[in-house]
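re: ur question from yesterday

yeah so i grabbed the chain u mentioned. its 356 aa long if i counted rite. heres the sequnce exactly as i have it in my notes:
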Amino acid sequence: MSYPLRPLHLAAEIGGPPRYDPVHHTGLAQLAERGALDFVTLGDSFARPGPDALAALSRVAPATRRIGLVPTVTTTHTEPFHVSSAVATLDWVSRGRAGWCVDVSTTAAEARLFGRGPAAPAAALWEEAGEAAEAGARLWDSWEDDAEIRDAATGRFLDRDKLHRTDFEGAAFGVRGPAVVPRPPQGHPVTVVDGTAEQARETAARHADVVLVRAGTPERTAGIRDDVLRRAAAHGRDPGTLRVLAALTVDLGDAESAPEPGLESGLPLAGHGTYYRGGPVDLADLITQWHRSGAVDGFHLTPITPGRDLERIVNGTVALLQHRSLFRTFYPGGTLREHLGLARPANRYARRGERV
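ran it thru and got these structure tokens back, copy pasting raw so excuse formatting
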């Protein structure tokens, strides 16, 4: 399937071994911002020690100005109402730079932490994650943009006619609404889903703004992308509103070494995804090749050693891509949606005129 070549998008993971000093994550986000990356992610799970990713990036937000902030948020064992409120709060704190990377909890050990029941199959968990994403979007729309009137003379803070019930009923939960947080600056914070696994693709197709794909060659990556975009179209979505990024783990520990054999035609699989080892220049060439082939809209890079490798990504790989006029040197706007070229969603309830 052929798609027009879009501007190159780049993002990076700033997690790694657990760190509790806020200066660590703030410094990495600021470094990525100097390279004009679209966003940084911070991984999280119930099995992983370390600070809560969403809370950590809320601390990073005031220390950055333009870069998008995307924590991993697990929808299993959590309440969608509270998740949507927390993500909306991050969007307010960052002035429209928030997203969330939807994930699920699959292990029995994690299920025992909560005691609500046994671990469910992956397909059921991703169906629940899709419902959580849908409930979140409805809650973000439950306040119209001008619902706050703050009229001191009359003592009216809200226009109740501009608050809406969501009345969402899913297989696992129901949410009535409205939200307790006003509609986020972006309307909807950006939703990111790793669509590599078959079980996650339907959720990605229905709800994601950004889809991550872990595959070993441009052809395999393009195949997964086409599958997700076909599903999105089947759900009435415009495939042009999705951004597909290749997810790549990078090791730039030896800047002089050549890439592993075979990288010219594809990446060897290692661990949890595709793996690159080599220098910043070769990485820039790889990104250029994959993007120009039309396989992806960009890359999400996970440094093996964040402090070392992110610096080489920004000052080496990104600088070279900018020199070649393949990647921007400044941010096109103030919000993450603007960085990604995505429109601000209309409020579904305001269009229909439904009232509390």
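noticed a couple things. The chain is about 35% helix and 20% strand. also Confidence is low (pLDDT under 50) at residues 255-272.
anyway ttyl
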